[in-house]
From TrEMBL:
Protein name in the entry: Cytosine permease
Family classification: Belongs to the purine-cytosine permease (2.A.39) family.
Organism for this UniProt entry: Adlercreutzia caecimuris
Compartment list: Membrane
One annotated Gene Ontology cellular component of this protein: plasma membrane
Membrane topology: Multi-pass membrane protein
């Protein structure tokens, strides 16, 4: 049972926590639409998106690449909008929202742990890319050593990986406002730099001819291209609530996802398609970075930071939820960010993180089924909507929550299995397969169980120890 002392501890922690890890975002802390929009665009509009677009352009026509981008992104944007709308309405992060969207307190601990490990892992991977990029661009640190100490690790790289990892960690410590401020500056700068670099590369080429040109490389099917597009952002789409909760309503979430898709995903992809057709290669990022040293630096810095800060931010929110669910403790968010940032940085510095990409990909398949379950529970079954609405105006968490929902756990495992089988045998889009089928299975089982028991909704044992 939640004691008065625990409520006081939670209130005190909320006062210290400027990002409301374990509480609702109050109306006074909601952010202007454009600030969150820049975070969204920054999470999509990056070097990896250019690499994806170039891979599409190398193997298919401009029109086919357009179709793949639309097919691969539309469903993800629907999921982003649905979860983001729930988050904007309730003011809760992805992992905390899951407590009242089918997972219960125990399930939110599992999900928070998966999100924390997955996102800090990708933080480490991206930090490796960041460090390697800076080491190759900045010649004045060559004296530290350019020979590999172990595979992929040089003395120069170690310095840059430490600098980049801890710098991003410091940014995330300052919270969503700092992340938004950085994105507001560097997203436009990144877009301008990419356009300028592309204009230099495309000089002497006819845009009309490039649009109509046959792909320069081996043919890539629409199905394979769509899988590449959807797979590249599925985890990011599911973690949309972590920043969408700072928006005021679902309309703002809709426009955020729509604009982000057209500017970040569609715009970057199609520009990279033109570049791939013009240069006859999919290595367009290297070519663009070679146009100018300073432009290359800006591309690497702006792209990696504005993507990687969200990875670490979501990881800290997931870990905060897990620790609270397991130990009924409200953790200091700043301490969690520093701990996760240091772990991710160290793993990237010693090169170990590169051996975990298969494990991280495995975890990536474990996240989508939860999104399907959450959308079904919140929008269709509406099992916890009453308790959420009771306390929304007061700006506090609901006074009770389910301990466990065994049906959710079973459907989550089945969805994970479907995703893995889809991945092994290359059937469709593994993440989307697991998301859709887990959501459908959850809906069917819950509805059938409710009818058998003769009730409107199946509920499980609850606790008033919400924190």
């Amino acid at each position: 049972m939640t004691t008065e002392k625990q409520f006081e501890e939670a209130a005190e922690a909320e006062n210290r926590d400027i990002d409301y890890s374990l509480s609702r975002v109050p109306a006074s802390a909601k952010q202007p639409f454009w600030r969150i929009l820049f975070i969204r665009i920054g999470a999509i509009c990056c070097v990896s998106q250019l690499m994806l677009g170039a891979a599409l352009g190398y193997g298919m026509t401009f029109f086919d690449a357009f179709v793949c981008t639309m097919l691969g992104s539309v469903l993800l944007q629907v999921v982003s909008w649905a979860l983001g709308t729930a988050a904007a309405r309730e003011g809760l992060s992805t992992s905390l929202l899951s407590r009242w969207c089918g997972l219960g307190k125990g399930g939110s601990a599992l999900f928070g742990g998966v999100v924390a490990i997955s996102m800090v892992g990708w933080f480490g991977v991206q930090n490796s890319v960041f460090g390697q990029g800076m080491a190759s661009i900045m010649p004045f640190t060559d004296f530290l050593g350019t020979e590999e100490i172990i595979p992929g690790v040089t003395g120069e790289y170690i310095l840059w990986a430490i600098i980049t990892g801890l710098s991003i960690t410091l940014l995330v410590v300052f919270g969503i406002k700092a992340i938004a401020n950085f994105a507001t500056i560097f997203v436009p700068l990144f877009v301008i730099v990419v356009i300028v670099a592309a204009a230099i590369v495309l000089q002497g080429h006819s845009i009309g001819e490039l649009i109509a040109a046959a792909p320069p490389g081996p043919a890539l099917s629409i199905g394979a291209g769509t899988t590449m597009v959807a797979g590249g952002f599925i985890a990011g789409a599911i973690c949309t609530p972590d920043y969408a909760r700072f928006l005021k309503n679902g309309n703002q979430v809709f426009w955020m996802t729509l604009i982000g898709t057209f500017l970040g995903e569609l715009g970057m992809n199609l520009l990279a398609v033109l570049l791939a057709n013009a240069m006859g290669t999919e290595n367009v990022v290297d070519i663009m970075m070679g146009t100018s040293g300073i432009i290359g630096v800006i591309i690497v810095v702006a792209s990696t930071v504005k993507l990687n800060d969200i990875n670490l931010y979501s990881s800290s929110l997931g870990l905060a939820t897990m620790i609270n669910a397991l130990f009924n403790k409200v953790s200091n968010r700043n301490a969690l960010v520093w701990a996760l940032g240091i772990v991710g940085t160290v793993l990237s510095v010693v090169g170990i993180i590169n051996y975990f990409t298969s494990f991280l990909t495995l975890l990536g398949v474990a996240i989508p089924p939860v999104a399907g379950i959450m959308v079904v529970d919140y929008f269709f079954l509406r099992r916890s909507r009453a308790v959420l609405e009771e306390t929304r105006k007061e700006g506090i968490l609901p006074r009770r929550v389910e301990n466990w929902n065994p049906i959710t756990i079973i459907c989550w495992l089945v969805g994970f299995g479907i995703g893995e089988v889809s991945s092994i045998y290359a059937i469709g889009i593994p993440g989307l397969n697991s998301l859709i089928l887990a959501g459908l299975l959850y809906w069917v089982v819950m509805v059938v169980a409710a009818r058998i028991k003769g009730v409107q909704n199946i509920t499980f044992k609850e606790t008033d120890e919400v924190l």
